[in-house]
Amino acid sequence: MAQRRASWNLDMVGEVIFMPSSYEAWTVVASVLLAMFASFVALDLAKRVRTADRAIARAWLIGGSVTMGIGIWAMHFVGMMAFKLPISVGYDVLYTLVSALAAIGVSYMALWIASRHKLTCLRLTGGAVAMGAGICVMHYLGMHAMEMSPDVVWDWRLVAASAGIAVGASAVALLIFFWLRKLQGLPALVWQMAAAAIMGVAIAGMHYTGMAAASFPLGSVCTSSSELRGDTLGVMVGAASMLLLSMTLLTSIMDARTQSRTNKLAASLQVANQELKHIAFKDPLTGLANRLVFEDQLDSSVLRAQEGNRRLAILFIDLDGFKPINDSFGHAVGDEVLKQVGQRLSSVARPGDVVARVGGDEFLMLLENNPDRATAAAVSMSVREALSKAFEIDGRGMHLSCSIGIVVHPDHGPRARLIANADAAMYAAKRAGGSVHCFYEADMANDAEMQIALQRDLRHALDHGGKGLELYYQPKIHAISRQTTAVEALIRWHHPTRGTVSPVQFIPIAERFGLIGALGDWVINDAFRQMRQWQKEGLRMRVAVNLSMHQLRQNDLVERISKALREHRIEPDLVTFEVTESAAMEDTQTSLRMFDQLAALGVRLSIDDFGTGYSSLAYLRKLPARQLKIDRSFIKDLQPEGDSYAIVLAVVQLAHALGLNVVAEGVETAEQERILLQIGCDSLQGFRYAKPMPAKRLAIWAASEEGPDHGAPLGFRDSLIEPEV
């Protein structure tokens, strides 16, 4: 125990003897540590009260004030318990509670100031004085809770010193609150611990300076000794305060982490919103405006034109020759071409014009400033000239042209029809051979409306189980035996009002309006259904089905084909999937992976329209194909010693060297047949043998005398049950 003795000379009255007093060292240490811990929690709470959510900030302000105040008061109470007199000492309940409330009030003031954006001189000075006064009230009310008779004798110099320490410590605390805002991470934690130690020592210094100012005359009696008292009570108060401070600190840390995650999410959301705005208003590939922005700008432009009795024009630009480039060299090269197209269109555009990309290779240009037909035509010629120059990509020169449809408002329709009419004019330019511009005329709307009507009717047919759709089958004839070895499934559409619609007409519409996937699924399932029906009739017919480029890009294609095979109980070996050479070359890695998966199912693969693409021998060797089909364009002009003859001969020799079967499609004459037999083609297909026909006519045809030259009937060869030759 540390002991002290005090004496005081009372003015001319004589010497007064004071009771000896002492401090319990470990309790003093505990009180100082408690003050440091309370200061650390206070510094952490100062961060929480600055949250943007007012309700949460208010909750932290109130709850933090209670916790911080109790922590400071507990330090004072434990320090009081460390003080020992040779008499029994207790504490008045009311004064003790009021002193605790004073500590809470001081804490509220400190945290409120800490929640402000700036620490002005007025706030610093006024806050420090008010907080210091509050601390003094807490301390000396707590001292007064020791109701002594006679009264405590005070050394007013030490009382003043303790008040000065309280005000100074409060000012330092406020400065530290605001200074720590600048720090983040580990440095912030280190400085917070150091600041808490300084603040804790200052608070403890104020307390023990105030205690030193009190002297107790010998013979004094504590009249409150029967109330709050005992070492056990001090331990309980200290432990409870530590627990409360610890829980508050833990809650504050968890809140800080939650707030940090929230801030990160908010930052990510802001970045995402910026990206979404960019996506919403810009074409991600070319950086041009997208259709949404173009439509909005068009609305504003039409209003201005109507108010000023002025004109505006729209150019609908579609690239000619882009698809072969994209098919042959892949999407990466195609994307680079589109980027350069966007740059060239932007360079042609005049000030005030708007250029947008609205589709794969479709662009729109809005011309303002009262353009007439001559101005629109001049801009169109500039566009065509700009796009006719070679595109240099990876050392290769590529050439494109474009078809342009033009509308002038108000001559060519209301706002709602302008883009559709420009589209119709563009298709008219394409039908004229491309690389031209064409002004809209009234009868062009009929074609655009017909396309929209056809896509609507086709969608309705697919939604109702393929109503009106039917598969026709064209035989493949074995070149030597002249017997049927397989059939190719070809789709037909019997429209309820338009009659039979050609695939040349409705398949591009299906591709344009996103119906090709559903249409392909219907073809596969109906072909398998018919194969099953033929099997029930005793005919194991091999059927070839075409796969489009769009189907090859569907991740679940193999799964859906496998499911259809199981549902219809079809042997995979009887199915051949024909894929055009250009589709196979669209994305070689993806195509090769898809072909391998299809081959693993057991189905056969055939490369259709061979000779029209740009496939390499190395790539061809990797494909698990069993068959090549020579494109009809080579068969059409097939003559001895001609270019087509040399190409067909080379293809047949190449295919046979790779172990592939060769089919020639589009055979129509006896001379073509003779040459193909001489070259060594394995199978023939074309109008010379049969046109595509419904399934119910196929068996009748094979048994009849409808074969070429009305010779012997074209029967089904026995090897249908064997692997196809």
TrEMBL record:
Gene3D superfamilies: 3.30.70.270, EAL domain (3.20.20.450)
TM regions (residue ranges): 25-43, 55-74, 94-114, 121-141, 161-180, 189-213, 233-254
Gene Ontology terms, MF aspect: cyclic-guanylate-specific phosphodiesterase activity
EAL domain segment(s): 451-706
Residue stretches making up the GGDEF domain: 310-442
Entry keyword annotation includes Zinc: no
Any GO BP: cellular response to nitric oxide
Source organism superkingdom: Bacteria
UniProt KW keywords: Membrane, Transmembrane, Transmembrane helix
Catalytic activities: 3',3'-c-di-GMP + H2O = 5'-phosphoguanylyl(3'->5')guanosine + H(+)
UniProt-listed PROSITE patterns: EAL, GGDEF, MHYT
Coiled coil: none
One of the record's GO cellular component terms: membrane
UniProt domain MHYT: residue ranges: 23-217
Keyword flag Transmembrane: yes
Name of the protein this chain belongs to: EAL domain-containing protein
